[in-house]
């Protein structure tokens, strides 16, 4: 979100952030396959929240989701090393 309240679209969009963003030291397109196989994961669900329509700042919503998880389980999600 920009300082004036307008939405700022990332170049490459959400797809680029998910696929080319880094996790576990490599782009997700490479690292996720290894983690999925290593952990025997059958499916990977990705949820997309439309925060802008509700007037919420995306980082705020992300923080709420992580906080809710932490409150429920007493730790961050397994693949989150920090927040």
Summarize the SSE layout with pairings:
Layout (H helix, E strand, L loop, with lengths): L12 H8 L1 E2 L2 E2 H12 L18 H16 L10
Antiparallel strand pairs: 1-2
With helices defined by DSSP (H or I, 4 residues minimum), what is the helix count?
3
What is the CA-CA span between the terminal residues?
A: 19 Å
Number of domains: 2
Number of strands: 2
Low-pLDDT runs of 5+ residues are: none
Described by strand count, sense and barrel closure, the largest sheet is: 2 strands, antiparallel
Output the radius of gyration.
Answer: 15 Å
Tertiary shape? globular
Strand-residue proportion: under 5%
Q: Return the average pLDDT rounded to an integer.
A: 85
Query: Taking strands numbered 1, 2, ... along the chain, how are they ordered across the largest sheet?
Result: 1-2
Question: Could you say which structural class the secondary elements and strand pairing correspond to?
Answer: mainly alpha
Could you give the order of the helices and strands? HEEHH
In helices, the fraction of residues equals 40-55%
């Amino acid at each position: 979100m920009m300082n004036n309240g307008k939405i700022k679209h990332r170049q490459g969009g959400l797809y680029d952030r998910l696929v080319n963003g880094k996790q576990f030291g490599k782009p997700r397109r490479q690292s996720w396959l290894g983690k999925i196989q290593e952990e025997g994961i059958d499916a990977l669900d990705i949820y997309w929240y439309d925060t802008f329509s509700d007037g919420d700042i995306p980082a705020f919503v992300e923080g709420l989701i992580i906080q809710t998880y932490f409150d429920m389980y007493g730790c961050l999600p397994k693949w989150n090393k920090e927040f």
